[in-house]
Amino acid sequence: MPGATVSREVRARAAELRRQLNHHNYLYFVLDAPEISDFDYDQLLRELQALESAYPQLRTKDSPTQRVGAGLATPFRKVRHLSPMRSLANAFTETDVEQFRDRVRRAMGSDADLVAELKMDGLAVSITYSRGELRQGATRGDGETGEEITANVRAVGEIPGSLAPPGASDSGTLEIRGEVYMPKEVLAGLNRTRSELGMELYANCRNAAAGSLRQLDPEVTRSRHLRAFFYSCDPPPPGVHSQFELLAWLEGAGLPVNPERRLLPGGRGVVELLADWQARRHLLPYEIDGVVLKVDRLAWQEELGADSRAPRWAVAYKFPPEERETRVLEIQVSVGRTGAVTPLAVLEPVLVAGSMVSHVTLHNEDQVKAKDVRVGDRVVIRKAGDVIPELVRVLSAGRTAASTEFRMPTRCPSCEAGLVREPGEAVTRCLNPLCPAQVQRGLEHMVSRGAIDIDRMGPAILAELVSRRLVRTPADLFRLSQSDLQQIPGMGERSSRQLVAAIQARRRPSLARFLYALGIRHVGERTAELLAAHFGTLEGLRSASVEELAAVGGVGPVLAGSVHHFVHSDGGAALIDQLLEAGVEPQGAARIEGPWRGLTLVLTGTLSRRSRAEAEAEIRALGGTSASSVSRKTTAVVAGASAGSKLATATRLGVPVLDEERFERWLVAPELDPAELVEERDSGQLHESLGFPSGEVQRGGKGTN
Ligand code: IVH
Q: Which CATH number do you get for residue 22?
């Protein structure tokens, strides 16, 4: 029903859904950091699909509904595997492994030869080759159906597009399975870059491999330097009768196969082999989480079969997380940007899961108490998810009589202000906004990549600037001159000039970056984006009530309270004003596609039916821009009651003025072609089309036409 009037609510809702879906797509496919469940994503997508099918004129070419198959929550096509991709039964102890061998012995009448392969911690893939040519790549998915990722599989350099002989001569279809993984070094480099960009880090090689393979753009996958090892082929090639032979065949066909494989006749030596890998696993350039033991003979595999979940001919021995003992040398407390004071154990350095650990966070006072960690204690350390070190427990046996319980300091280690712990809160805080540690952290946050992003402004330079009192507040950064910077040791003519240029180049950050940079509690990059997209201008956000803030999709009451409190607090308001005074100009949020694209409206006076922030949000939801000052480029001024100087400027410049009633009507039926409207405005006809004679100005909110 093209031409049918679409209500303002529906338009705004569709725009909001598109924005949210795009945002979640980005989080999922680009950042690999989804914030909502697949189920919740589907709900949003379905709602948008329903709106678009009821009002086809709402459907834009770039709508998230058009970029993914109908009903699919991901942009990847689903494909059914030729045979199910099963998982493996786990063994956690030697006994579990012995039981597996017993079961095989009972079923087959004698000990089986076993192949031991490393259990790669990556992402299972299934690749189909037809007549030796790569036809399709798929993820494991739920085991029955996976996602089609052929282009991305081709972007893994090691995976051949065509098989070498003997694979090339196979005239049928082969389903080859294996694991795509990211080497440890590649992950370290990737996380370095992501950290510089202020992006969330990948917790481990597996997540990174999965995220890199499930990219919309295969070039991104290519840039991630993924690798692969293959271990199965269905049907098995002619003449291949064992797993060990199969691995050699795959290798011969040009596929990468892990060289760390062993054939154990009669399964002998398996216990030693497992212990050996457990000790040496961290020497490998990639992550493994165990060893897979497989019955070697394919005929036996066939006979043993599988249950619905896993084959009976294989077992995965999983390594326990590595734990190490060390000693607590000291318990320090560090002060964060928001004043949170965190206890930190300084350790006698110890090698855990492949890297040296010398510090471990103790989170807060209660955690230290619960574990009763004391200086001098022997403690057990392990890595959570094999990445972040954690203190598991204290070995109290070694404790000396002199040891005393940890006490949270009562004064800030940086500024000596009294520390406060609110009832019901776990966190102890320093509330002094001028606390040097907080100022330093705040500055580090302000210049970080996700915020104002000032290249070259590292923590060492900031510390120098703070200690020399050249910078007391973030706004001072924007006032730094070359001669100020030259006071820092090692800062010459050239580098100070470059740094000043780098600072000036960031004077006009996006509103989202600006909001994030303020360091408001609970406001991360995502929330900052949501707020910026909703309010569009800093003024809009500053004048919003707690209820208006809480009404923003994705912003809950706690967050709304935190933002409201910040912008109205003496310190927060002063920080914003100081930044503006120093010449920082946050730029309005990205424009939304909509019928008012290209139109700039200025609101003035008081509207009776909606708040200023709501009206601004409505304008943006329709694709228009809400500006704060009137110029010749302004499409129209919306004048509420007691409109003042903006109305006068509009009159002087000949900019059309809408009263509130007309504005309301236009919001409900915004079908006027924006191009026409702009043209009309330029030719002076807009007044007529909007209902008043050219040149006539509607005054206040009561004007009639
Ligand atoms: S064999 C039917 N071999 O572990 C058995 N799996 O927990 C097919 N994996 O989904 C799996 N390295 O992603 C096998 N050398 C290896 C492996 C391996 C890693 C993964 C694979 C599988 C999961 C099962």
A: 1.10.287.610
